[in-house]
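Support case: 2-phosphoglyceric acid complex. Customer-provided input:
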Amino acid sequence: MEIRDVVLRPSYTSRGDETIEATVQVGSASATVTAPAGASTGETEVVHLPKGGFNTVIVNFDKSKLIGVDASDLKAVYEGLVKIGGSDRFEKIGGATAFSVSVASLVAEALASGRKIFSLIGLEPTIPYPLGNVLGGGKHAGPGSPDIQEFLASPVGAKNAFEAITLNILVHKEVRKEIEKKDPTFAGGKGDEGAWAAKLTDEEAFDIVRRAIDKVSKEHGVRIIMGVDMASSTLYENGVYNYARKGKKLTREEQLSYVEKIINDYDLKYVEDPFNEDDFESFAELTRSVKALIVGDDLYTTNYERLKKGAQIKAGNGVILKINQVGTVYQAKLFAELAHKNGYAVITSHRSGDVCEGYLADIAVGMGSALMKSGVVGGERISKLIRLARINEQEANIPLWRSTV
Ligand code: 2PG
Ligand code: MG
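Agent response - structure generated as follows:
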């Protein structure tokens, strides 16, 4: 159905970053969607907002290029946004605007036509397992916290999404107890995504999360895998990985051995961004040497051309999909399609600064995702998780992802 109106408003993410809220009217229905924002962003992501911030975008946005466009045609919405944004990098409006208009068009079309949001994407849907950040460091937490950005859990043995969400919440609670055993003065601080932010070394953090996962897994008889997002581009300086909090610098070869070691020592099944964002070769080498999901986030930035390049040498076996890294649902769909064709697991992800809308779940299902990375607690995280559980309840025919690791 035709887009009849687009209205942009200024808004903020959970971290207080400026962002854009878009209301799109399609037929007689309308939907409002707000864009999230990242902190550990990849070099090849589109800009979040151009110079001048949300006010400049709102004043200059030429909505006439979208009026009359068929909202069910993802490509047509993308093309309209390219005209307004200056190019497929959306430099005049930012990824935030492209995201909010594109997702709001999809949601409004679903409402207007009575179809499901996930079905409008046009790929084979799956119910992903939630992948939750339980302990944080790096750019998402303060000084004294681990160098590694995220310690993650995913209950891939759960019988449904709701059980998996519950188990991740239990792991999160258990991690707090473990931190308190180590540091009785722990004040309960959390980082940007609701993960605990404590004064710990990486190794202490690994031990704590491993113990918490093992306890919950054993008590409930459900397999829960452990993972990390190393966000290595944020550690990489002048050709070495600088673990500043630990006071150690690792060369590329040392980083490779270190990552292999932590995968073995802690039985990690998910490792995101273990190397700098341009080091496709090291991703490929690690993927050959271990049995775990090796996932490119800053490496790929949801960018089709980068994945085409990486897939040739099998750099990683999983990709992070974040629509706002690239702009629109259409571009992200092409990226997901290419990932599936090359045997990559798709992990649809939130951003560290996010919003209380739950549409990430619809997108994760529609993109055929293995996992949905969306934190564990906090309103902006729970909204997505509960929406995932509801889709799982309502869509008995859509299978849950079957773990390959
Ligand atoms: C990441 C994300 C989300 P940010 O690195 O994967 O966890 O963080 O949104 O800051 O890029
Ligand atoms: Mg990441």
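The longest helix spans residues 161-182.

Case will auto-close in a few days if no follow-up is received.
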